[in-house]
């Protein structure tokens, strides 16, 4: 199997729990009927899942310390518990199942971009990190299809349970993350895992990737210490805030709530006194789901299937565009398009379905366009951008912290959108969502840098140009890479040995640099005394000077690009 094929398999395997969360979200929002006919039940169902995900963030962080494989399997295990509890039945079991789904949600949205970034080659990383979005949308669409087909609930639950159980065992066959193995000091295992993931790469390419893996972590820093260290540096702190803004902001645009509640959200308006008539509520539902050829809702699941299909197709297209066009343009232009679509939907809301449009309401088409624009750019690009901004040491911490903030944003949106619709009507809720989305796009245009195919140091140089010449960000510790031994009398590189050891910027930077300078000076003096330079065979290792990559502050070098 070629490296690209294996990359696709890895991304798919990593995102199976994300599909499971999409199934759980689709089940709560449309298919199960667990929340009954009341308005409060639908809100509680959604808020419970998102609120529980806050607890899932520290649990996911703890699981990651045991390995990426373990964390993914543990995430699937939470969905095994979710579907098993739903099969068991009962009010308390349903509540516990929603909590389990929330725990799994935090893990999926935190782990999937992290693992994709670590296990895929440079040309795939952006799309791989963003693949969780179409995976989630696929799960939602599958559940909508099950509801449209009127499959028995028990049948649907058994299929969902089977998917999670099979994934728990199948993922045992996947390799561990090479970056995690390298950081754990298992260099031989890291090389074997990298060879498997890349297929049969050229020797030079493999050496370069091995050299870019992180150094063994001897400190064993806690997540709290990592977060404190990350926030203590001005450029990393700014990158974290901008990346967090990009991810959390797109969660608050209103499209999630529109799809989360599907046919129920406007029944909440009626219960709160919004429209006052059953027919008015049904007409509003028909407009929002955008797909009916009749002025009266016939099948809510059928309408949601169309929106779900549009969302999935757009998010798949986004995987290509996020690498082709870049992160920043996708965020800005998708935000503008989504905001305009929501605003147009609010403006066209009073218009009835037109025969020239096949019976589809004009406002419905505008909202469908907003959903498509959100899926093609606003959903995938921020996650790719966030993963680009940090090296291995800080990436997991940053992603999980932003995931926690995203969970809060999701819970607030799930509660606030029905309230806005009840107080200001459907038009007011859509207008508010449009204003927030357009404001987000404008702020992203001013704040967000382009990160596609850039190292974290290059991104920091763009974010903090005034600090780009400071040693904190410019000087990379000595990278001892015995794949590249430099001749002291020339510029040739000699390939020799296996393995590597590289450094990373940490609190011991001055001490390590001082020790390195002393070692290099001693080696040079020994080589000068012998007078014969460095040879390939028959000459002592003391005659060789280990290449120091990035010494002096090359902005393009980063010892932990992965």
UniProtKB/TrEMBL annotation:
Chief place where the protein resides: membrane
Transmembrane segments: 7-27, 39-58, 95-115, 127-147, 239-262, 301-322, 331-351, 363-386, 398-423, 429-448
GO cellular component, one term: membrane
One Pfam family this sequence matches: Sugar_tr
Record's bilayer topology term: Multi-pass membrane protein
Keyword hit for ATP-binding: no
Keywords carried by this UniProt record: Membrane, Transmembrane, Transmembrane helix
Stretches of the chain forming a coiled coil according to its record: none
Domain of life: Eukaryota
InterPro entries in the cross-refs: MFS_sugar_transport-like, MFS_trans_sf, MFS_Trehalose_Transporter, Sugar_transporter_CS
Location(s) in or outside the cell: Membrane
Record GO terms (molecular function): transmembrane transporter activity
Protein name, UniProt field: Solute carrier family 2, facilitated glucose transporter member 8-like isoform X2
Organism of this sequence: Papilio xuthus
């Amino acid at each position: 199997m070629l490296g690209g094929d294996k990359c696709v398999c890895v991304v798919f395997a990593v995102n199976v729990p994300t599909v499971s969360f999409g199934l759980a979200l689709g089940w709560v929002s449309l298919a199960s009927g667990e929340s009954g006919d009341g308005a409060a039940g639908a809100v509680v169902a959604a808020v419970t899942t998102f609120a529980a995900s806050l607890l899932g963030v520290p649990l996911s962080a703890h699981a990651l310390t045991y390995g990426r494989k373990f964390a993914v399997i543990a995430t699937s295990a939470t969905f095994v518990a979710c579907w098993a509890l739903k099969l068991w039945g009962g009010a308390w079991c349903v509540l516990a199942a929603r909590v389990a789904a929330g725990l799994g949600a935090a893990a999926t949205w935190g782990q999937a971009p992290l693992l994709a970034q670590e296990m895929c080659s440079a040309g795939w990383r952006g799309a791989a990190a963003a693949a969780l979005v179409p995976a989630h949308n696929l799960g939602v669409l599958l559940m909508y299809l099950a509801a449209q087909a009127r499959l028995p609930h028990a049948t649907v639950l058994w299929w969902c349970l089977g998917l999670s159980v099979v994934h728990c065992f199948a993922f045992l066959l996947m390799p561990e993350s090479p970056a995690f193995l390298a950081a754990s000091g298992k260099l031989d295992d890291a090389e074997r895992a990298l060879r498997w993931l890349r297929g049969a790469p050229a020797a030079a390419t493999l050496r370069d990737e091995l050299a870019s893996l992180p150094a063994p972590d001897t400190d064993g820093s806690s997540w709290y210490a990592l977060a404190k260290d990350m926030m203590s540096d001005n450029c990393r702190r700014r990158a974290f805030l901008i990346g967090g803004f990009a991810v959390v902001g797109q969660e608050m645009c209103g499209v999630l709530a529109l799809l989360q509640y599907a046919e129920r959200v406007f029944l909440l308006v009626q219960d709160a006194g919004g429209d006052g008539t059953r027919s008015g509520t049904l007409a509003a539902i028909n407009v929002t789901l955008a797909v009916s050829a009749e002025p009266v809702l016939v099948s809510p699941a059928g309408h949601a299937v169309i929106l779900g299909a549009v969302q999935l197709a757009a998010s798949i297209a986004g995987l290509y565009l996020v690498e082709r066009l870049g992160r920043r343009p996708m965020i800005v232009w998708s935000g503008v398009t989504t905001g305009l679509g929501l605003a147009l939907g609010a403006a066209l809301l009073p218009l009835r379905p037109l025969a020239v449009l096949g019976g589809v309401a004009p406002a419905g088409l505008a909202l469908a366009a907003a959903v498509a624009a959100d899926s093609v750019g606003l959903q995938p690009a921020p996650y790719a951008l966030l993963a680009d901004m940090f090296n291995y040491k800080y990436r997991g911490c940053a992603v999980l912290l932003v995931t926690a903030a995203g969970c809060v944003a999701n819970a607030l949106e799930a509660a606030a959108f029905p309230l806005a619709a009840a107080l200001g009507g459907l038009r007011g809720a859509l207008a508010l969502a449009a204003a927030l989305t357009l404001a987000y796009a404008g702020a992203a245009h001013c704040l967000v840098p382009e990160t596609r195919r850039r190292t974290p140091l290059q991104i920091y140089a763009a974010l903090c140009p005034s600090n780009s010449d400071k040693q904190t960000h410019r000087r990379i510790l000595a990278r001892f890479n015995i794949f590249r031994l430099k001749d002291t009398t020339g510029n040739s590189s000699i390939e020799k040995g296996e393995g590597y050891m590289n450094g990373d910027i940490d609190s011991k930077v001055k001490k390590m640099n001082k020790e390195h300078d002393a070692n290099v000076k001693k080696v040079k003096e020994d080589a000068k005394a012998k007078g014969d330079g460095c040879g390939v065979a028959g000459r002592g290792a003391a005659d060789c000077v280990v290449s120091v990559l990035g010494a002096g502050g090359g902005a393009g070098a980063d010892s932990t690009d992965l």
